[in-house]
Write a structure and sequence with these properties.
Blueprint (H helix, E strand, L loop, with lengths): L1 H20 L15 H11 L3 H36 L6 H31 L3 H25 L1
Amino acid sequence: MLNNQKTMGRIVVIFCIAAITAFASIAQAGGGCGRGGHHHHFIFKKLGLTDAQKAQAKAIFKANRIVVKPIYASLKTERNNLRALIHADTIDEAAIRTETAKIAGIQADLNVNRAQVGAKFRAILTPAQLTTLQTLRQKWQAKIKSSAAAAE
């Protein structure tokens, strides 16, 4: 059990790195991937962003934090509600299914948000930077696959 938890922890960390590549989770307050400042500098450096691009990217991410903060708060609340239902003395299958559907809806909203923010970020990149970004994403996805295979 402990070993599985360690493996899952590694997968979560790698997933966060992959999400950062999409440049949306950086902007999501409370998203589980840290505060984002260090990741900004790492990614900005890897892509060779100009000062103007850095300013644009930071503005995109800052504006998005305001959008996603209440969504993450809602997700946390609903997950706590689900946990309580799962561990209740009496099993209420309908309530568990309803709560699970709420969480899925919130996660769908976050995924759409990630896609939108990623598109805004990519729009400020040069073709060469887009190519570098794609290469980084492929490397991180390969790491995810490799870690997932090792966990099985």
